[in-house]
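note to self: dont lose this again. the chain is below, predicted strucutre after it. 277 aa total, dont forget to put it in the shared folder this time
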Amino acid sequence: MRLLAFLEGDVPTMGVVTDAGVVTLASLHDFYADVPGWLRRGAASSGEPARRIAGLTLIPPVPGTAKVVCAALNYASHAAETGGRLPEHPNLFARWAATLVPDGTPVPVPRTEPGLDWEVELAVVVGAPLIDVTPDEVAAGVLGYTVFNDLSAREHQRTSRQWALGKNSDRSGPVGSVIVTADSLDAGDLHLETRVNGEVMQSGSSADMIFSPAQLISYASRTITLRPGDLIATGTPPGVGFVREPPILLVPGDVVEVEVEGIGTVRTPIVDSSYRG
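---
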């Protein structure tokens, strides 16, 4: 099943994608309050009145209260290109949900940064409360998967052991509005790709992860309760910009696209810090 988040008037809404278009299910708030119930409704929605996707205002598919947990150096080949050692435990950091933006949203380069770096990622959306679960128990609490671009302000990231500023610049979390439910996608060997102005910069497979999505979620759940709508970004394959010789970063006028096989593409124009759109 493919779910899609959009605005119904001014109400954040979740719908299900059918051959005819999108069938409205519920407000985002109500959807995450009863994920199993709305999934059953979505599975029976064939033939119900649908609207065209074109023209809809798409939004991030998680609530504004979502926890956004990201994994650093979780692809063996990416850890190697940065000179980092393979982590013994998941290396997790937090993003603010306010940085999440949908496909097509211009993202500004902070005035004090030479540019932004790209990181295509497979993201997992939680569908049920998860508290101190084992990796084997995680599957029952996964709603599905989407695409994420962990745009990074490297100057601020590298000047501190704390990554909050470097990983939370304004609008720096482009995310797919589509969620592909877990029963419709095998996340074990998906192709991930980043293109900058049409040129491929990253091309890798989720099979290169050091810790699987289930292991990442299990580890996080030992300390924090994960709730429906929380988002776990699972790391990026090799090919980021700051390790290149010379480094390549996104600057105003560039367009970056990130794609995950079976889910879709998120396209992001890069603008300068004066942009107030």
